[in-house]
Design brief:
The protein is built from three helices and two strands, in the order αββαα. The chain has 71 residues and is an alpha+beta fold. The chain has a two-stranded antiparallel ribbon with strand order 1-2.
Length: 71
């Protein structure tokens, strides 16, 4: 939506995700690589990355999560 609104020449976005689990630390690491395809300068790519980092799912996964279950 941002790229369309700003009329950026963004033709495609490719995302590669790798998950690592560190048992000793009981920790999951998500490695995400974004590839923006199109005629974009570094400032446009940086802005698109900032927008991707501000999405609701990214925010949920970046913060501590507590799950409370009840019946």
């Amino acid at each position: 939506m941002y790229a369309d609104r700003k009329e950026c020449d963004l033709q495609e976005v490719k995302i590669n995700i790798e998950l690592d689990f560190i048992a000793k630390e009981n920790k999951t690491i998500i490695n995400r690589k974004l590839e923006f395809i199109g005629n974009l300068d570094d400032a446009q790519k940086s802005r698109l990355l900032a927008i991707a980092n501000a999405c609701p799912v990214h925010k949920i996964l970046s913060n501590p999560i507590e799950i409370h279950s009840s019946i």
